[in-house]
Each structure stands twice: as C-alpha cells, then as structure tokens.
Design a protein that fits this description.
The complex is a heterodimer.
Chain A lengths: L2 H23 L10 H9 L2 H38 L15 H10 L11 H21 L19 H9 L2 H11 L3 H32 L4 H6 L11 H14 L11 H4 L9 H26 L11 H22 L5 H29 L3
Helix pairs in contact in A: 1-2, 1-3, 3-12, 3-13, 4-12, 5-6, 5-7, 5-12, 7-8, 8-10, 8-14, 10-12, 10-14, 12-13
Chain B lengths: L1 H11 L2 H22 L22 E3 L9 H5 L5 E8 L3 E9 L8 H5 L5 E3 L14 E2 L1 H4 L12 E7 L9 H5 L5 E6 L4 E6 L9 H5 L5 E7 L6 E5 L9 H5 L5 E6 L15 E6 L9 H5 L5 E5 L3 H6 L15
The chains are: A mainly alpha, B alpha+beta.
C-alpha cells in the first residue's frame, strides 16, 4: 500500500473539487476584479499546495491507522490479561466486548473537566498536549512497510528515522515531570520524580542496544535496518539485545513491572492523579499508543519489520509481529510484580548496562567476522 | 543458623525467582485457563450466585412483631437507623425503624439484638439507586410482615407478672417446684408481689396455673447474645407521672398507688394518693426507653451484671435508693 500515492490521489481530487467550487460555482457570480475566484482556484491546484495537503493527509492516515491499532491493542490487552487471570474481560459491548474501549471513551468524554484550585494552570494544561503530541510524533518515523511511510514529494522518508523516534520518545518524561509538578499534589510529584529517575536508568542501555543494530546495518533509517534483515532477523544473533530492548521498552512506555510513575497501589495513579475526564483518557490512550510505537520499533529493529512470506502484504506482517511483541508485554504485565525505585536503578545500571555493552561487543564481533 | 536463612533468601530473590519462575507459572496457568477451562467470572445480570443462607442483605421488618423498642437504633454502629413515628390504620400510633443504606455496613447487630425477631435480613442485595435519598428506606419500605424467620432466636417462656392484678396470695410461691419465687414487699405501697429468680426458674408454668387472679402469664422471651441493661429505680425522684409506663414497649412497668401520701390541703381535704412505678423485670427487654422517657432522673439503665451492685450501692446524691419492685 503506497501511502504517498493514496494521499496524493485523495488530495488531488479534493483540491480539484475546491478548484471547481471557486472557478465553476463562484465564477458565476458577478466578478468586478476579473478572474479573482479563478485565480484562487488555480492556486489550490498548484503542485506545492497539493503536496502540502498530501502530507497532511499522510499524517492523518498514519494517525488513524495507529489509533485503530491502539483500540485493538487495548482490547487484546484486556482479553489476554483476563485469560491470565481466568476471567472473561470485556464481554457485553459489541462482539466479544470489542467496543468496550469506545464505551469507556464515551464515558470519559461526558465527564466534567476539573482543574484543581492549587494547580499551576499553564503546566497542567500544557502537559497532556506535550505528552500526546510527542507520542503522535513518534509515528511519523515508523513505517509499516517500505511504501507505507510518511514521505515528502521527492519520496524521501525521515533520514535517521530511528534516532528521531528515540529522541521523540524521550520527550514524554519531561511532560510527565511537568504534569506531576503542576498538579501540586504529593503523589503526582513523586510520580514525576520517579519518571525522571526511571528514565536515567533505562535510556542508556536501550540506546546501547539500538547502537548494536546500527553497528550491524550502518544506517539510522528504518528502511535500511529492515532491508538488512532479509536473510536473518537481528533478533536471532542479537537475542540478548532483543531481551534487553524489550525490557527497556517496557520501562520506556511505563508498563508493569516498570510503571513506577503511575503505581496504582502506592501513588494512586501517580502523575495522572489530578487529571480527570478526557484528559486522563488521553493519557491512558497515549500510553497504549506509545506501547504500539514501542512494539513497532522492536519489530523493525529485531524481528525483520515487514519482511515475511508473500501471501500477506508487508504491513500486515509488520502488525502481526508488533501484536506478538505486545502480547509479550501483556504477558509480562500479568506475570511480574512492580519493582521499587532503587531496584530499577540497580537493574538499569548494574545489570542492563553491562549486558548492553556485552551485546554491543557481540554485534561488533559479528561485524568484524564479516557476517553482516 | 540465621546466616544460612539469609543466604537462602538471597538465593531466592534472584533472576530465576523473581522473573523466570513467575513467567513460567503464569504461562502454564494461562495455557491451562485458555484451553482447559471456563472463566471463573459470573455473568452477573444473567447468572447469579446462589447466596448463602445467612446472607445479610436488605432488612425486612415485621410491623406486627416489632414492638418499637428502638434497640436496633441504639446498637447501630454507623447510626444509620432511626425511629419513625407512624400512624398505622391497624396498629395505631407506632414507632418503627428505618434504615439508611448509604451508611449501613450490614453487620447485622440490629437483627441480633431484636427482642422479637421482627427485624430480619433478606437476601436482597440489589439496592443501587440513582439518588442518594433513594438509599434511605423508610419503615414502610422495609415492611414485610410475612418474611420467614430463617434463624429464630432461642426463646424461653417466662412467667410474667401483671402487678395490678396480683393480690399477694402467695399461691405461686407454694406451687413453684424449684422455690425460685419469693414474695417481696414493694416499698411504700404495702403490697407484696412475687419475684422470680430467672437463673433458677425451669419455666414449668406451675405458678401460672396456681395463680387465682390470673396475674401470671407465660410470656415468650427471646435470648439475645447481648447483655441487657436493666432499669434501676430511684423512688425519691419518682413523681408518678407514668411517662415510663407509656414508653415501655414490653408492659414491664405498672403504676401503683402509695397509700397515705395524698396531699392535705388547707381545708383538711386529702387529695389523691401519689403513684409510683413498679417493675416486673422478668419481661424487661432492656431497651431503656423508660429511662429516656423519665424527665426526673428516677431511672437509670445499668448493665445486667452490675444491676445488683447498683441496687445495693447508695446513690451519690446521698439518699439510699431502694430500687424497683424487688430487692
């Protein structure tokens, strides 16, 4: 599926409708300036405007696809978690409870949005925007296939897309800190601080693990990384790296067992305590969006991305692999207890970092031996 | 030895113990759940669990059995009950308890203490309401005269005395096979009435048969697991107003005249004799409504175990108090 092609076709049709409205319909009106409406219409069908609209459409399609996937992921999480706990999960709304998320979203939409009296209003309102915005920005870099990627008119994707994705990934703890601070509540503040502490522990091993992939490929872009896995997925020679990356990615997207910033039991949902209504809904939704993005990155880096047998399109293979990674996430969530703040620092600096360096050494060995 | 246990503990909290073993257990459990069994969830509105026989749900109140003593209101730990005055076409002016389920914790103390098994707990648990006032159940809403008593309390038959009928024939004393009845003089009234030691009484009912005046009747009395308070009477403060008699839900209190206490006016006329309250404590359920009704401080509720001490001990006000009907 060619994202650019589809978007270009749609925007072409849309702009020609606009042109027809301006020159055909409004042109019938008395026109003292002479060709005024026709000029505006012609501007709309100029290649630059069409390219701009095409990119907007691309972004829209990518976001819609991501949100649909997120809805499915939340359903998958609830169902798998329910099976782990020997219960049913969502059941009543829709087939197999598939529309439960939509019902929950509707419930959150009609709730009153309260801003706490003592909160810092600017920070309180800007934090969800940063969080949601930065998380949506990650999706710009992640292609579902060689064609289904955000491109510009020349057909170029984001150069260094993986670096971009990780850079944007790392914005969220900042917004969490802003949220925790501005809510003016002890739980939220502790949650924000924990988020910062957690980031220090997982970010370095994760980037070192990613560096091992870069070392083998020699490129920062998703397309090159996936194409380098035509013969063998990096998850097999770099199995240690895959494990490390999944552990760090769970910490990155703040899921159990690394959900210290929003520990329900001890911190009352942590940094989201004072948020209510759809703001909270956006936070929850965005966390799954980040989970989706994390699974996508893990798929692209270690599991061969969209490479698969030909009977299914590449996007579907990509999504299947991402879903399998997500089920692993859910499984880990169901199995492991939350760890303490000192334990995550211990884990990050004393276990994951040496292992990540070891993984880098393994990758370097492969490169020296000339296997990749 | 403690060092060794420490070592063992450290071994347990390793990667295997904290990560791999839980993951494996969960995996096995998930596979077993997914392919071997049905979910444990009860699909509530469609399926319902079979409730245990002692389930404590919404109350059922029998208006006919309830005597309006208000002990349920007194014992409620959350103060979620209240007595409501009702004008009933059949029962007349009565007081019955209502329950506020927004505060009720379903402890069942009110049911335990009910001296007539009038307040029961049903297995009705669907009490949710869209309105906070909708959880406030007035006695009319709780009324269910026909609800069966699933666990009736143990009852004893007590010979209850109607003091006004008693003429002091002492037939009951002679008839009693275990000698638990003694005649006691009621202070200042010149009457002698029987008093029954319930700890000895075998509830045989021979005294009831022997009584020529039919003053004794067998009264059913339920055994509750709480210690009942008893009224201690202070004759000096009693004015004979009869408020306690009207308040008593169990017909324990009677008014008797005290001869020779009529007021003499200036022209030599002798007024009516003063009255005093007399207690037939066998029937007392310990609700304390008499003490609440008395405005002159003549009555005080004392726990049953301390009842005799309280009777013997002089009041702090100075005058010795000869309590009740019996010593």
């Amino acid at each position: 599926m060619d994202l650019w092609g589809i978007s270009y076709a749609i925007s072409d049709i849309l702009m020609h409708i606009v042109y027809w409205i301006f020159s055909g319909l409004l042109g019938l009106l008395p026109d003292p300036l002479g060709g005024f409406f026709d000029g505006i219409g012609l501007w709309f069908v100029s290649p630059g405007v069409i390219a701009f609209i095409t990119m907007l459409l691309e972004a829209l399609i990518v976001i819609i696809v991501a949100l649909l996937n997120v809805i499915i992921l939340i359903w998958v999480e609830r169902k798998v978690l329910a099976r782990i706990m020997d219960s049913r999960g969502p059941f009543y709304v829709g087939p197999l409870g598939f529309f439960q998320n939509i019902a929950d979203g509707a419930k959150l939409f009609v709730k009153q949005i309260i801003i706490p009296k003592k909160a810092d209003k600017f920070g309180y309102q800007i934090a969800p925007i940063i969080f949601v915005g930065s998380s949506l920005l990650i999706l710009a870099a992640i292609p579902l296939s060689a064609d289904f990627a955000v491109k510009d008119a020349t057909g170029a994707t984001i150069p260094g897309g993986i670096l971009f994705a990780f850079a944007v990934f790392a914005i969220a703890p900042f917004s969490i800190l802003v949220a925790g601070w501005s809510e003016n509540n002890k739980y939220t503040l502790i949650g924000g601080m924990r988020s910062a502490a957690q980031m220090m522990s997982y970010e370095i091993p994760m980037l070192l693990t990613v560096a091992s992939v870069f070392l083998l490929v020699g490129s920062f872009s998703f397309g090159d990384v996936v194409n380098a896995q035509q013969n063998i997925w990096f998850g097999i020679p770099l199995f240690l790296g895959l494990i490390l990356f999944i552990a760090c990615m769970i910490a990155e997207v703040e899921r159990i067992p690394f959900d210290l910033p929003e520990a329900e039991a001890e911190l009352v949902e942590g940094w989201t305590t004072e948020y209510c209504g759809m703001r909270f809904g956006f936070f929850m939704f965005t966390e799954y969006l980040r989970g989706y993005a994390g699974c996508g990155i893990a798929t692209a880096l270690f599991l061969g991305g969209w490479i698969g047998p030909d009977f299914l399109p590449g996007e579907i293979w990509f999504l299947i692999k991402a879903y399998i990674v997500f089920v692993v996430f859910v499984f880990i969530r169901g199995a492991l207890p939350r760890i303490r703040t000192d334990q995550i620092l211990d884990l990050g600096w004393k276990r994951l970092l040496p292992l990540a360096v070891l993984n880098l050494l393994i990758a370097a060995t492969f490169k020296i031996l000339g296997w990749f | 030895m403690p060092e060794q246990t420490c070592e063992r503990r450290r071994e347990k909290s390793s990667l295997t113990g904290l990560v791999i073993k839980p993951l494996w257990t969960t995996f096995v459990q998930t596979v077993r759940n997914s392919f071997g069994g049905r979910p444990n969830t009860v699909l509530y509105p469609h399926e319902k669990l079979v409730l245990p026989p002692r389930y404590r749900g919404k109350h059922a109140l029998s208006f006919t059995r309830c005597i309006g003593c208000g002990q349920c209101v007194d014992i409620c730990p959350n103060e979620c009950m209240w007595m409501k005055k009702i004008e009933d076409p059949v029962l007349g002016k009565i007081e019955r308890p209502g329950v506020d389920y927004s505060r009720c914790l379903f402890c069942g103390l009110c049911v335990e203490i009910c001296p007539t098994d009038a307040l029961l707990m049903t297995d009705q648990y669907e009490l949710s309401s869209t309105d906070r006032q909708g959880l406030r159940y007035e006695p009319e809403a709780l009324r269910n005269d026909d609800y069966p008593v699933r666990e009736p309390k143990d009852a004893i038959l007590v010979p209850g005395l109607d003091v006004t009928k008693c003429k002091g024939h002492e037939e009951c004393v002679k008839a009693c096979p275990v000698k638990c009845i003694t005649m006691v003089e009621v202070e200042k009234t010149g009457k002698r009435v029987p008093t029954i030691d319930l700890s000895v009484c075998t509830h045989c009912g021979k005294c009831v048969e022997a009584c020529p005046e039919k003053a004794l009747t067998m009264t059913k009395k339920l055994i509750v697991m709480f210690e009942r308070p008893m009224p201690v009477f202070n004759l000096d403060n009693c004015t004979g107003c009869g408020a306690c008699v009207r308040a008593c839900p169990a017909d324990v209190i009677y008014l008797l005249e005290m001869p020779g206490t009529g007021k003499k006016s200036a022209d030599g006329k002798v007024g009516k004799d003063k009255k005093r309250a007399v207690f037939a404590l066998e029937k007392c359920i310990g609700c304390g409504r008499c003490a609440k009704a008395c405005r002159f401080g003549a009555l005080e509720m004392v726990p049953e175990s301390k009842y005799r001490e309280a009777q013997a001990a002089p009041k702090p006000k100075g005058k010795p108090k000869k309590g009740g009907k019996k010593e």
